[in-house]
Every structure is written in structure tokens, then in C-alpha cells.
């Protein structure tokens, strides 16, 4: 990756984290939340996807999810590993958020890869994505734990990422505005976490 | 109050030492007589007078840098009990013992506690952290600076390139090219200056290049660590906004002029 273009790559990384990856995550968790209404409600909601022509769906998947996510994830791993964590010496709140942003990011690479393998790749291999597919996965308590960890990592990463995004683009400048956004993004984290975890527990 | 009387109390100091650049490092322990009002530098001078370790072994005097002795030059910075700060203003009475001294390893260690801060000075050159006024003729007076602007710009001008914020930053290291918080904040300072602002696009172009502004990951350690209380994170966020605008100007603008 050209070093001269580093600024643009970093800004692109930041933007893609929110649009479309962050938006997709919010949409994805909300759709899963329909499982709280029962098996039928979930299958009806996800069944809407089947109404989209398969070729179009595939294009949307690549353009809106895979390509931006892969760029963000792989560049994110590079960013994460060029940091030298120093929370022992500087144990401030923000420095912990800095570390957690990187730790959750690296964990998400593993989680998302596994999650895609268990769902999207199985679908490509002929399996049907519906309520029982997920129910079978989380019937294993270890998998349930792994999924909850993955959901919380993602919601944290998005919420704290939103905070960072606002600074990276120069929207929040004053310490006060940054502090207020800390509270706002904490609320985003809590709400998305409740939606996400309630959804996965609905499959148990 | 007796200032030099020997109280019999001893001060324990551990120093991470290294003889050559890139060489092996080792910890040496010292125990030196306490004096009232002592600071880390006077403790190091005590060791220099009598370079003998705690268990009686003769060693070489410890090397360190210093200059102003009043926390304005930045030369004497080192990591004291885990925190990067100036050794001339670090009072022994306010430190828990054993006092551990380490060099700021984010910079190349020259010897013992001496580090090479060239990286930071080179970054200041790179971002043109000055107001260019040299011409072939007298350019006359520059525009006036509003007083309220001068007041906050003065805060930014207090930077003494001590390197403490660089040591505190998790993204500044040998393995990354990030120029670090101090040079960035200087860009904001010189882009604020009415004459300096005449070249603000050139400075922005520099920090929008390799190792620049976008490498900040918002750990905000710099602002916690800076001994001069410089609002580094506000500077960075403010430059982020300026860079966002500049990015669009570069692409959509009719030319690349300042305004
Ligand atoms: C669920 C999917 C993900 C979402 C929604 C997401 C979202 C975000 C957002 C919004 C940001 C803030 C951008 C900024 O700092 O301006 C961010 C930053 C970051 N992301 Fe992600 N991300 C995801 C996955 C990943 C993955 C898989 C990695 C891999 C390690 C990763 C690594 C990073 C890193 C290191 C940063 C910090 C960048 C910096 O502060 O300079 N992210 N992410
Ligand atoms: S900004 Fe503060 S910590 Fe950083 S070099 Fe300047 S004075 Fe030192
Ligand atoms: S000797 Fe100048 S800051 Fe300490």
C-alpha cells in the first residue's frame, strides 16, 4: 500500500468502518432481533432476502459487505499490530478504549471468518439459512459463548469506533464535545448489545 | 532548615543502563545519601561523584542529558517510575522508592538515560514549523494577530520538544512512521499565526503524507503526559477538521492555493 496515500487509506478505513460496515452491523443485529418474536417471525423476516434476485443479492453482498469489511479488517490488523500497547503505564479510560478497539478488532477477524463459514459458506454449499440453522449452532454452549463474545466485541468496536470517527474527521474537537460523545456512544453500545444478545438468546 | 545535613537516610535508585547504541541493557541499583530538596538530577550527580552500586561494585558514571534545570528545555526527559517526565523537576520526596529510571525507549538510546530525539526535530523540519519571512526585500509588517487567538496559541508555543508525549503515544515507535503529537500541534500553532497561515496548505500537505496526522489512534496519552499542559488532542482534532476540508479542496478546488 503506497505510503504517500496513507492519509487517504486511513480516512477510507475510518469511513468504511461506519459506512457501510457499521450500518450493516446495526441492520444485521436488528434483523436477527426478529427471532425474539419466535421462529416464524424470524423466518418471515429473513425470507424477505430471498425475494431479492440472487445475482443482485450477490453483488450487494460483495459491494456493501465483503469488500469494505475485508479492506477495513486487513488494514485494521496492520494498524493494530503497529501499536505498542502501554496500558500498564497509562491506565486512563481513553487508552483502554484504544487497546480494546484493537483487541476487539483482531478478535472480530476470527469471529467473522468463523461466522461466515458457518452460515454464508454453508448456504453456498446448499444449506438453508433459517431459524434452526442458528439454533443448532448455539445449542452448543461453547458456540453460544463464542457468539455472545463476538456480538459484544462488534457492538463495542462499532460504538467506540463511532467516537473515534467523529474525532478522525474533525467533528468533535473540544474536550467537552468528546466527553459528551463518550456518553452517547456508550448508550449506543448498550442498546446495540441488548439487541444483539437478546437476538442470539432467542435461538437457545 | 538544614539543606545539606546528612540525615543518614539513603535513597534507593534503579537505573536501566546501556553502554552503546543498540547494545545490551542491564539494571544497576544504587543507594545514595539523601539530601533535603533533592531531585533526580542531583541524585544522578551523586552517583557520578561515586559510581558504586548498592552492593559495592565499581561501575561507570551514569550518562544523562540536561540543560536548563528548570523544565523549559526538555533535554532531561526520562522515564521515572514508569512515567516519562523531566528529571530536573522530579523531586525525590515525591517519588516512591526504589526510584526506577529508564531512557525513553521510543527514541534510539545513545547511552544509559541519553536518547536521540532527532526524529522529533526532523519532523519539525518536515512540517515547516516556522514562519517564513525571508525574502530579497523587506516584506514589511505582517497582519495583526487577534489577542484572544494569541492567548491560546501561546499555550501551544510552550512546547519544548521534550519527547514525553512521543514516549507516551502507543503509535509512536521504531516500528511505525508516525511523527507524533508534538510536531502536529506545532502545525496548528504555525497555521494559526497570521503570517504562518500564508503557508498553511504546505504544512497540511506534509501532515497528510506518510507518517502524518491520520496515524493518530486517539489513545489521548499525549495530553495526559505533556508537562506543559498543551491541548494536544484538541490540536489533533482541529487539524483533522482542517485536513478534511483540505482534502476536498485538493480534489474539487480550482487550484491548490491557501484559501
Ligand atoms: C463488525 C465489523 C466492524 C465494524 C462495524 C468496524 C467499525 C469501525 C469504526 C467505525 C472504526 C472507527 C474509525 C476511526 O477511527 O475513525 C473502526 C476503527 C478500527 N477498526 Fe474496525 N470495524 C469492524 C471490524 C474490524 C476488524 C475485523 C478489524 C481488524 C483488526 C478492525 C480494526 C480496527 C482498528 C484497528 C481501528 C482503529 C483505527 C484507528 O483508530 O486508527 N475493525 N472500526
Ligand atoms: S507537546 Fe508537551 S510533551 Fe510533547 S514534546 Fe512538547 S512539551 Fe513535551
Ligand atoms: S534540564 Fe531542561 S527541562 Fe530539565
TrEMBL record, chain B:
Known EC number: 1.3.5.1
Annotated signal sequence range: none
Listed SUPFAM superfamilies: 2Fe-2S ferredoxin-like, alpha-helical ferredoxin
Domain 4Fe-4S ferredoxin-type, residue spans: 150-178
Top-level taxonomic group: Bacteria
GO molecular function: 2 iron, 2 sulfur cluster binding; 3 iron, 4 sulfur cluster binding; 4 iron, 4 sulfur cluster binding; electron transfer activity; metal ion binding; succinate dehydrogenase (quinone) activity
Gene3D superfamilies named among the record's database cross-references: 3.10.20.30, Alpha-helical ferredoxin
Enzyme class, spelled out: oxidoreductase
A Pfam family: Fer4_8
Cofactor: [3Fe-4S] cluster; [2Fe-2S] cluster; [4Fe-4S] cluster
Gene Ontology BP, a term: respiratory electron transport chain
Key words, A-Z: 2Fe-2S, 3Fe-4S, 4Fe-4S, Iron, Iron-sulfur, Metal-binding, Oxidoreductase, Tricarboxylic acid cycle
Family: Belongs to the succinate dehydrogenase/fumarate reductase iron-sulfur protein family.
Protein name: succinate dehydrogenase
Amino acid at each position: 500500500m503506497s505510503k504517500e496515500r496513507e492519509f487517504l487509506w486511513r480516512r477510507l478505513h475510518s469511513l468504511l468502518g461506519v459506512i457501510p460496515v457499521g450500518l450493516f452491523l446495526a441492520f444485521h443485529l436488528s434483523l436477527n432481533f426478529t427471532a425474539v418474536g419466535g421462529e416464524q417471525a424470524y423466518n418471515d423476516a429473513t425470507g424477505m432476502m430471498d425475494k431479492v434476485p440472487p445475482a443482485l443479492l450477490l453483488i450487494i453482498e460483495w459491494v456493501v459487505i465483503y469488500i469494505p469489511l475485508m479492506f477495513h479488517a486487513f488494514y485494521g490488523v496492520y494498524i493494530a499490530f503497529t501499536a505498542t500497547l502501554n496500558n500498564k503505564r497509562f491506565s486512563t479510560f481513553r487508552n483502554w478504549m484504544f487497546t480494546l478497539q484493537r483487541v476487539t478488532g483482531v478478535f472480530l477477524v476470527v469471529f467473522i471468518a468463523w461466522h461466515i463459514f458457518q452460515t454464508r459458506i454453508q448456504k453456498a454449499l446448499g444449506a438453508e439459512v433459517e431459524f434452526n440453522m442458528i439454533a443448532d449452532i448455539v445449542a452448543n454452549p461453547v458456540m453460544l459463548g463464542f457468539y455472545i463474545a463476538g456480538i459484544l466485541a462488534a457492538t463495542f468496536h462499532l460504538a467506540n469506533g463511532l467516537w473515534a470517527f467523529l474525532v478522525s474527521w474533525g467533528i468533535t474537537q473540544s474536550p467537552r464535545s468528546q466527553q459528551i460523545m463518550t456518553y452517547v456512544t456508550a448508550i449506543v453500545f448498550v442498546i446495540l448489545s441488548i439487541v444483539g444478545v437478546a437476538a442470539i438468546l432467542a435461538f437457545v | 532548615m538544614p539543606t545539606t545535613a546528612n540525615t543518614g537516610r539513603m535513597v534507593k535508585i534503579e537505573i536501566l543502563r546501556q553502554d552503546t547504541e543498540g547494545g545490551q541493557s542491564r539494571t544497576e541499583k544504587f543507594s545514595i545519601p539523601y539530601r533535603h530538596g533533592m531531585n533526580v538530577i542531583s541524585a544522578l550527580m551523586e552517583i557520578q561523584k561515586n559510581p558504586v552500586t548498592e552492593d559495592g561494585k565499581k561501575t561507570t558514571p551514569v550518562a544523562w542529558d540536561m540543560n536548563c534545570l528548570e523544565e523549559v528545555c526538555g533535554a532531561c526527559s526520562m522515564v521515572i517510575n514508569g512515567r516519562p517526565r523531566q528529571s530536573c523537576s522530579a523531586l525525590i520526596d515525591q517519588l516512591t522508592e526504589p526510584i526506577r529510571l529508564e531512557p525513553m525507549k521510543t527514541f534510539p538510546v545513545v547511552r544509559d538515560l541519553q536518547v536521540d530525539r532527532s526524529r522529533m526535530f526532523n519532523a519539525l523540519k518536515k512540517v515547516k514549523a516556522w514562519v517564513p519571512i525571508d525574502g530579497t526585500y523587506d516584506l514589511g509588517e505582517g497582519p495583526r494577530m487577534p489577542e484572544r487567538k494569541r492567548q491560546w496559541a501561546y499555550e501551544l508555543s510552550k512546547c519544548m520538544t521534550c519527547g514525553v508525549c512521543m514516549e507516551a503515544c502507543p503509535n509512536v515507535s521504531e516500528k511505525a512512521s508516525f511523527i507524533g503529537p508534538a510536531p502536529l500541534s506545532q502545525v496548528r500553532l504555525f497555521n494559526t499565526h497570521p503570517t504562518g497561515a500564508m503557508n498553511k496548505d504546505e504544512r497540511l500537505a506534509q501532515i497528510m503524507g506518510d507518517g502524518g496526522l491520520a496515524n493518530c489512534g486517539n489513545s489521548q496519552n499525549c495530553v495526559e503526559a505533556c508537562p506543559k499542559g498543551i491541548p494536544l488532542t484538541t490540536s489533533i482534532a482541529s487539524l483533522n477538521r482542517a485536513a478534511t476540508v483540505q482534502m476536498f479542496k485538493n480534489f474539487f478546488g480550482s487550484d491548490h492555493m491557501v484559501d
